[in-house]
Amino acid sequence: xxxxxxxxxxxxHHDVALVDHEGTLLARARITDDLAGLHQLLxxxxxHGDTANAPAPIAIETSRGLxxxxxxxxxxxxxAINPMAAARYRDRHTVTRKKSDHLDAMVLANxxxxxxxxxxxxxxxxxxxxxxxxxxxxxxxxxxxRTQAGNKLRSHLREYFPGYLAAFQHNREGIxxxxxxxxxxxxxxxxxxxxxxxxxxxxxLKKAGRQRGIEAEVERLRDALRVPQMRQxxxxxxxxxxxxxxxxxxxxxxxxxxxxxxxxxxxxxxxxPDAEIITSFPGLGSLTxxxxxxxxxxxxxxxxxxxGLKAFAGAAPVTRASGRSLAVMARRVKNQRLASVGYVWxxxxxxxxxxxxxxxxxxxxxxxxxxxxxxxLFNRMLGCLHHCLTKRTPYDELTAFPTTPxxxxxxxx
Length: 413
Known about the structure:
This protein is of the alpha/beta class.
C-alpha cells in the first residue's frame, strides 16, 4: 500500500486528497456528486498507481450514499471513519484547530496511512443482504413513526374525547388497530360517536376485518361510546374532531407503511441462505431475524470472532482500568438497531428456551437487574449465533445450554 485516499463528502460536492506512504500530498481535487465526478475520482486514483490487483483504500465519514455504493462496486476497500475519530486526528495536523474541507480529506487519508489496522473496511455483504438491510431498517423506522403518530393522536384525544381511549384501551394495538381507526374515522367527536347505531358499528367492524364476536363487540362499543364524559364547547369539539381526522391520516399512512414493509422484509429474508439458521434460534422469527441479519450482514469475515460481534451489538461490557481503579460498565457506543432487536430476542427466548430461562434466572439470583440479565443472555445468544453461522449449523439447545450433571451421592457400606 503506497497511496491512500480521503474523501470529505458533502451534499453536492466532495473533496478528495491522495497521500503516499510518507504522508506527502500527491493530489487534491473537488469532484461533483454525479457520474462525471465519479469518473474524475477513478481517473485520479488510476493516475497515482491504483490497480485492480492493488486498489487504493478509501476513507470517508459515511457508509451510505451513491458514491460509497459505486466505489464498493468497483472492488475498492472503503473505510467508514467515525466523525468523532476524524475530529481527534485533526488535532495532530494543526494546533490552531483550523478546519477546511481539504484538510479533512487529508486527515482521512492519513488515518488509513498510519492506523489502517485499527479500522475495518465496509463488509462485503451480498446484494440480497444489502436489500434486506434497507427493508428491515425502513420497517423499523416505520414502526417508530407509527408509534409517534399514535402518541400524537392519543394525546389529542385525551383533551376532548377520553371515552374513545377508554373504549379501546383493552386492545393490544390500542388506537392503532384497524377497528379503532375505522370507528374514529366515522365518528371523530363524542356527539357523533354516541349516535352510532348497531348497524353502523357492525358495518365498521366488518370493514375493519373483524370476523368473530362481532355482535358482542358491537354492544360493548355502543355502551362504551355512550358513557357520559366531560365535553369541550360544541364548536371547539368540532374543530378538535377535524384535527383528529388529520392526525388519523398520518397514523393510517404509518400503519400501511409498516404492513407493506413487513411483508417485503419477510419475503426477502426467507430467501436468504442464513434465514434457516437464524430462525432456528428461540425467540427469533422472520421479522426479528431479518433485523439481526440487516445489522450483522452475511460477510463472515467481518467478525473474526464472537467477541467482535458482541462488542458491535453492545452486549459485551467495557472495562475501564487506571492504576487501582477498575470499572466494568455497560457499553454505550454500539449498534443501536441490533441492541434494540437483541432486547426483544432475549425477552422472547425466555419462554421458548428452558436453557435461556435458566441462564436468566441464574443471573438474577447472582444480583443482576432485569436489563443486565437480559443483556447477558443476549451476549450468550450472539456467541451461539456466530458459531452457528460460521459452522453452517442450526441452533441446538443442549449445545448452547448444556445441563450440569447432578452429583451422585455414595453411601458408605
